[in-house]
Amino acid sequence: MGQIKKAVILGNHIQALGLSRMASRIGLQVTIYNSYGASVARFSNSCSKFILYRDQEHLLQMLLDGKVEKEAILLATNDDLIGFMARHFEALSERYYLSIPKPEVVDICFNKRKTYRRAQEMGIPIPETHFPDSLEEVRALAPTLQYPVILKPAIMFTFFGATGQKVFFCADEQELIRQYEEILKIIPAEEVIVQQFLHGGAPTLYSFGSFFAGGEVYGSFVANRIRQKPMDFGISTCFARTVLNPEIERQAIDFLRGIDYFGMSEVEFMYDQATGEYRLIEINPRSWKWHSIANKLEIHLLEMMVDYLENKPVARKVNDQADVGWVERLTDTYVVAGELWKRRMTLSEYLRTMRLPKESATWSLRDPLPAIMYVLMSPYLLLKRN
Question: Which of 38, 97, 235, 311 is surrounded by the most beta carbons within 10 Å?
């Protein structure tokens, strides 16, 4: 193995900013590729070069252009670009150190039908879940279910790109049939999942974040994602706080080991208030929005990955600090205002979370411009993401 000197980051937003700062901290030269120019990460003093690409064919051409000089680690910030890396795994691996697992493992993570079936095989709890392949099967299933239920896609990024939603909520049999007919206009029947609705919302959401390789966890932490936008079926975490939860750690490690995972990941769980169990919801096979909470915990996930890829000794650290926070203030302020207005949160509850020691999504005294530009660009970013 050679020495990794560069980090090439595909994508944008807060994920790219966090990765760029992590890479710069360990002395890597950072290049960011993105499909549009309004990127908070490009304004970071950790980013050496920012390059626009037209489409993924153009991106692949640029990544494979020039002489073979394997000295960069390739990272991606969203599922679409992780899929791009998986599809071109062999070609890209000749030029770059890849931060993702093998394509067949990426497929297990992306396709929730496969995720849930593997979890069931391992004895890891999931919500009550069904995989109907036709309207006839849904009609037969509908009278047997306890409502409400949700319809969700097996492959999220395709569905979300078309609808801006993560799930369709179904209050009764009639709504399930109607929503199923609607979802078939967006995705094929073999990608539809019918799942139990777990009550509790954001306060019952937990995630295990880690760098995992060779069947072992090197750095990890568990967080309770207490605020998200929107609060019920969130697409964006805006406040998370660390917790100590050995049960979630055990289940997440068992799952990662069972699929032979490599890389950074977020394994998501939801607490089932009816049974007292933590149920696996999904796995993100990449860095995730609030991954930079690791900085506050001094768990250096990217440095661990680089050392592992270079066959160096890898420092290990499992978090032992509860109530360390992460906040994305712009979105969090909007969410909190709504929750206070609906009387689903008190001001004292909000203030308690803001007193925690915490990592900011964008603000850094050593690197202030991304936070300033994030505020200035927020109207455009809101329209772009919606």
Answer: 97
Domain residues for the domain of 11 are 6-108
Coil, strand or helix at 318: strand
Please provide the distance, in angstroms rounded to a whole number, between the alpha carbons at the two ends of the chain.
Answer: 43
* Residue from 196, 270, 239 nearest 334 by CA: 239
| 42 close to 32: Cβ distance less than 8 angstroms | yes
Rounded-to-integer distance, Cα 26 and Cα 23, Å: 6
**d(C-alpha 100, C-alpha 89), whole Å:** 9
CATH number of residue 156's parent domain: 3.30.1490.20
What is the number of other CB atoms lying within 10 angstroms of the CB of residue 116?
22
Closest to 240 measured CA to CA, from 224, 222, 229: 224
Other Cβ atoms less than 10 A from the Cβ of 171: the count is 12
Per-residue pLDDT of the chain (386 residues; tens, 9 = 90+): 569 999 999 998 899 999 999 999 999 999 999 999 889 999 999 999 999 999 999 999 999 997 667 999 999 999 999 999 999 999 999 999 999 999 999 999 999 999 999 999 999 999 999 999 999 999 999 999 999 999 999 988 778 777 878 889 999 999 999 999 999 999 999 999 999 999 888 889 999 999 999 999 999 999 999 999 888 776 789 999 999 999 999 999 999 999 999 999 999 999 999 999 999 999 999 999 999 999 999 999 999 999 999 999 999 999 999 999 999 999 999 999 999 999 999 999 999 999 999 999 999 999 999 999 999 988 877 666 54
Pair 332, 372 in one domain:
yes
Residue 98 shares a structural domain with residue 164: no
Task: Give the integer Cα–Cα distance in Å for 239 and 271.
Answer: 18
Does 344 reside within a domain? yes
What secondary structure letter does DSSP report for 155? Answer: B
Strand partners, 211: 219, 264
88 shares a domain with 219: no
Are 100 and 146 within one domain? Answer: no
Q: Give the position of tokens 């329209």.
A: 383
Do residue 79 and residue 162 come from a single domain? no
Give the single-character DSSP code of 145: P
Domain match, 359 and 256 both = yes
For the entire predicted model, the pTM comes to 0.94
Provide the domain count of the chain: 3
HSE (side-chain half, CA atoms, 13 Å) at 213: 22
Nearest alpha-carbon partner for 306 in 23, 9, 20: 23
